[in-house]
C-alpha cells in the first residue's frame, strides 16, 4: 500500500465505512491487507469482510467493476466470495478524505481456511487450474453492467511504475521493465486468449473447505491474456529460486498439473503456454517494485526477504524465473 494511503486513513473513515454497511466500528476486526485495509465482521449469523481502498490505487468505478465481475461469476456457479450491497443498495461507497477518498465495499467471507501442505499434495493445484479455466470460459461472454465499470487493461499505470518507486541505482531494472512491457504489448489479442482475469490467484486469496475452493480478492482483476492468470498461479507455488534440478522438475510437474486442470473447462494452446515465462518475469519485476514501494527493505518478512535475495541481479541479468520447457 502506498504510504500516502496509510497516512490518509483514520478512525473516522473506518466508522463511516461501517455505518454505510449497517455495523459499528467496534464490531470489526482488523486483518492483514497489502493494498487495502481489510476487516472481518459478523452480521446476524453470517460472516463478512469489509474493505477500504484508497483512490491513489483504485477509483469508485474500478471497485464497482470488480464486484460486478465477482457477482457475475458467482451467478454462474464459480465459487467466488460475492460482494454485498451497502445500506443504500450500492456495490461500493465513496468516503472523502483529506487526501483523495476511500472506497468501502463488503463481501461474503469465504468459508473454510487457507490451504495447507496436505491440500496441495491431494490435487489442489489441478482444482486451481480448473477454476481459472472456468473463469476464463465465462470471461469470453462477460460485459460489465455499466460501461463506466469496465476494469482497466493490464498495463494501466505500468509505464511509470518502476521510475516512480525504484531508487537511484536501479536504472538497469527500469530498463528491463520497460523492455518487457514493450515485448508483451506485441502479443496478439483475441476472444480466445484475452479477457478479464483475476490476476492474483494464489493460496492467500482462496480458502478451502471440504476440498472445495472459494476464491476472493479480485481487487487486481484486469483485462489481460488468460496465460497471465496461469503464470500468476504457477509463480506462487514455485520456490523463489528454482535453481536446482529437483526444483525445476517440481516446476515442470506443477505446470503440467495446472494446465491439465485448466483444460477441463477451457482450452489453451501451446503458443500461450510458451508465453508464460514473459508473464512470470512481469510478476517478478512487478513484485520487486511493489516491495520497494510498500515495505522497509531493512525489515522484510521472511517471504519477502527470501524473494528479494539476489533478485536485483537476476532481473538485471534477465535470468528466467524458472528455466523449464513450457509446452504440455
Topology (elements, then pairings):
Layout: H1 3-8, H2 11-20, E1 29-31, E2 37-43, E3 46-54, H3 60-75, E4 83-84, E5 93-96, E6 101-108, H4 117-120, H5 124-139, H6 161-165, H7 171-184, E7 194-197, E8 206-209, E9 212-215, E10 222-225, H8 226-235, H9 245-262, H10 270-273, H11 276-294, H12 302-308, H13 311-316
Antiparallel strand pairs: 1-2, 2-3, 3-6, 4-6, 5-6, 7-10, 8-9
Structure description:
There is one protein chain. The chain has helices at about 5-10, 10-20, 60-75, 115-120, 125-140, 160-165, 170-185, 225-235, 245-260, 270-275, 275-295, 300-310, 310-315; strands spanning about 30, 35-45, 45-55, 85, 95, 100-110, 195, 205-210, 210-215, 220-225. It has 13 helices and 10 strands. About 40% of the residues lie in helices and about 15% in strands. The chain has 2 domains: about 5-110, 2-Layer Sandwich (Phosphorylase Kinase, domain 1); about 115-315, Aminoglycoside phosphotransferase (APH), C-terminal lobe (Aminoglycoside 3'-phosphotransferase, Chain: A, domain 2). The strands form 3 sheets. Strands 1, 2, 3, 4, 5 and 6 form a 6-stranded antiparallel beta sheet that branches. It is an alpha+beta fold and about 325 residues long.
Judged by helices, strands and strand pairing, the structural class is alpha+beta
CATH homologous superfamily of the largest domain, by name? Answer: Aminoglycoside phosphotransferase (APH), C-terminal lobe
What spatial form do the alpha-carbon principal axes imply? globular
Give the beta-strand count. 10
Query: What does the radius of gyration come to?
Result: 20 Å
CATH level 1 name of the largest domain = Alpha Beta
Q: Which runs of at least 5 residues are low in confidence (pLDDT < 50)?
A: none
CATH architecture classification of the largest domain: Alpha-Beta Complex
Provide the helix percentage. 40-55%
CATH topology of the largest domain: Aminoglycoside 3'-phosphotransferase, Chain: A, domain 2
- Roughly what is the average pLDDT, rounded to an integer? 95
The SSE order reads HHEEEHEEEHHHHEEEEHHHHHH
Number of helices: 13
| Total number of domains | 2
Main sheet: strands, sense, barrel? 6 strands, antiparallel
Distance between the termini: 37 Å
Task: Kindly estimate the percentage of residues that lie in beta strands according to DSSP.
Answer: 5-15%
Amino acid at each position: 500500500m502506498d504510504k500516502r494511503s496509510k497516512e490518509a486513513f483514520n478512525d473516522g473513515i473506518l466508522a463511516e465505512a461501517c455505518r454505510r454497511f449497517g455495523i459499528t466500528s467496534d464490531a470489526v476486526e482488523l486483518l492483514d491487507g497489502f493494498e487495502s485495509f481489510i476487516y472481518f465482521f459478523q452480521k446476524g449469523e453470517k460472516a463478512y469482510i469489509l474493505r477500504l481502498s484508497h483512490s491513489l490505487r483504485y477509483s469508485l468505478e474500478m471497485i464497482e467493476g470488480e464486484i460486478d465481475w465477482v457477482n457475475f461469476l458467482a451467478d454462474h456457479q464459480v465459487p467466488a466470495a460475492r460482494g454485498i450491497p451497502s445500506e443504500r443498495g450500492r456495490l461500493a461507497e465513496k468516503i472523502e478524505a483529506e487526501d483523495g477518498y476511500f472506497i468501502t465495499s463488503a463481501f461474503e467471507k469465504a468459508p473454510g481456511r487457507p490451504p495447507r501442505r496436505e491440500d496441495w499434495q491431494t490435487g489442489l493445484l489441478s482444482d486451481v487450474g480448473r477454476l481459472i479455466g472456468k473463469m476464463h470460459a465465462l470471461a469470453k461472454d462477460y460485459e460489465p453492467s455499466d460501461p463506466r465499470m469496465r476494469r482497466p487493461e493490464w498495463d494501466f499505470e505500468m509505464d511509470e511504475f518502476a521510475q516512480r518507486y525504484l531508487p537511484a541505482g536501479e536504472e538497469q531494472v527500469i530498463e528491463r521493465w520497460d523492455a518487457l512491457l514493450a515485448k508483451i504489448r506485441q502479443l496478439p489479442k483475441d476472444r480466445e486468449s484475452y479477457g478479464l482475469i483475476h490476476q492474483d490467484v494464489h493460496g492467500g486469496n482462496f480458502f478451502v473447505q471440504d476440498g472445495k475452493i472459494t476464491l476472493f480478492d479480485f481487487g487486481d482483476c484486469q483485462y489481460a491474456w488468460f496465460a497471465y492468470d496461469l503464470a500468476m498461479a504457477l509463480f506462487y507455488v514455485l520456490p523463489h529460486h528454482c535453481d536446482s534440478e529437483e526444483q525445476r522438475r517440481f516446476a515442470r510437474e506443477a505446470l503440467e498439473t495446472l494446465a491439465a486442470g485448466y483444460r477441463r473447462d477451457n482450452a489453451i494452446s501451446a503458443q500461450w503456454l510458451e508465453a508464460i515465462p514473459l508473464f512470470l518475469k512481469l510478476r517478478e519485476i512487478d513484485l520487486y517494485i511493489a516491495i520497494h514501494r510498500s515495505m522497509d527493505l531493512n525489515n522484510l518478512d521472511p517471504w519477502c526477504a527470501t524473494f528479494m535475495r539476489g533478485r536485483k541481479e537476476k532481473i538485471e541479468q534477465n535470468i528466467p524465473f524458472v528455466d523449464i520447457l513450457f509446452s504440455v
